[in-house]
Amino acid sequence: MDIIDNFLNSITMYRLVLYYLIGLVMTAVVLSFLHILSFNPFLLMGSTLFLIAASYVTNTIFSLVFEAPVNVESVYISALILALIVNPASSLQSLWFLFWAATLTMATKYIFALKKKHIFNPVAIALVLTAIGFNGSASWWVGTASLTPFVLIGGMLIVRKIKREDLVITFFTIAFLTIAIFTTIAGGNAVNILFRLILNSSLLFLGFVMLTEPLTTPPTWELQVLYGAIVGFLFAPQIHILGIYSTPELALCVGNIFVYLVSPKYKLFLRLKEKIRYGTDVLDFIFPLEKKLNYIPGQYMEWTLDHHNPDSRGNRRYLTIASSPTEDTLHLGVKFYPNGSSFKKSLATLDVKNPIVGGQLAGDFCLPKNKREKCVFIAGGIGITPFRSMIKYLVDRKEPRDIILFYVNKHADEIAYTDIFEQARAELGIRTVYTLTDQSAIPQGWTGRMGRLSERMIQQEVADYRDRIYYLSGPFGMVTGDKKILREMGVPDSHIKTDYFPGFA
């Protein structure tokens, strides 16, 4: 699993989904050549290219009209999803249907948005509209037995990457139970129906790919599980209201309405106020806010930065909000690496002229609701950002908590936000343990600790370490290593929370 996790950590979520969809289309073409699938492989390839072209042109037009940044990966992903669930065009009429499906998919990203936030999954609502206006529908042909192994393996990688296991499992479970109950009542064989659901239906593809789409997913774990249950129940084809029977796309759209009602309904267009540098490769970006934002300290947002010639890692990143909702500015702490992405290079040169767009607030890496819960925060490098948000929030609210923070850096000049942590120590008794890993560059007069976090260090600094909840945030390798240390110390997994957000780690 370490090999798989290292691979997943090296790729963006959007790029993983894109490669997965390309792989499914290519597999389908091969199976068509082998006559395992009944499609003409040349029509399949031609329809796919047509959908990509139509989606690209339409999206470019809408982005110019609405003055919105173009997310090219999103265009390709939507087009490939359509190619996998709508039959290839075999006539001028069916080609016309593909055109409108692609056009409506792109259009809904801009039209069906309130306060610039998506309401519906673009592909799902486009298929609902085409069914109404063109009397056509999706066949969901990707849900066939010959493609099921590929859908399953790739889908499991996506779910592991974005940590949405509970959402998907809930969807599958409720869908299975609902259909089994209806089938049993009707005198059918529930076991046979369940096998058909896995091997010959839209269930797997809908759950792995479309249900987990970030922009129409709720922000917290509890809401995600409820969302999965709603769509899972409505997925059952026996469900109908006023003679309208449920379809996969309709079930997803109804679930999307729930998501919109329970999610934050705004997008931020922020312009830089100032940048503060820590060391040679860490910057704290500070943006003024027209009004205070309502979010939970420790949450993250998806940030889009429009720039010329974006590389293969795209123009979007998920970054934790380093500020507290009590502040009138928003902070983003970012670490820069040699040979960094085009996104990072553009961000490093950001000035007041160019806005950065924030949306899709989410995350459960937040303070425990029980204020008496004793915690240990462990931060590696720029992984300090969620803890800066939480601790600043506690300071501003004058809310004491029993927290010990371990802050690990390579060099002393990389240590950020010390003013907040010193204020927390003085006013709330929240103690910060600083440690440097490069022992060849310890500054004169250093009073902190030296070396990587270890079992001995934790035991020396935290007498009651077995009684605490541990929060880990930082580079993937550090989080994995520290989690192993805690397990070897006897700390149960239920007492270990790790920071995670989809996208490029």
Give a structural overview.
The protein is an alpha/beta fold. The protein has 3 domains: 2-262, no CATH class; 268-362, Elongation Factor Tu (Ef-tu), domain 3; 375-498, Rossmann fold (3-Layer(aba) Sandwich), CATH 3.40.50.80. The chain contains 17 helices and 17 strands. Strands 15-14-13-12-16-17 form a 6-stranded parallel beta sheet, sandwiched between helices. The protein has a 4-stranded antiparallel beta sheet with strand order 5-11-8-9, with no helix packed on it. Strands 6-7-10 form a 3-stranded antiparallel beta sheet, with no helix packed on it. A hairpin with a 2-residue loop joins strand 1 (113-114) and strand 2. Helix 8 (165-185) packs antiparallel against helix 10. The longest helix is centred in the N-terminal third of the chain and has 26 residues, at 41-66.
Evaluate the radius of gyration. 25 Å
* Proportion of residues in β-strands: 15-25%
How confident overall, as mean pLDDT?
Answer: 92
Number of domains: 3
Quaternary structure type: single chain
Number of DSSP E strands: 17
Number of helices: 17
Helix-and-strand structural type:
alpha/beta
Q: Report the biggest beta sheet as strand number plus sense, adding barrel if it closes.
A: 6 strands, parallel
Shape estimate: globular
Low-confidence stretches: none
- Beginning-to-end CA distance, first to last residue: 17 Å
Level of helix content?
40-55%
Strand line-up in the sheet with most strands: 15-14-13-12-16-17
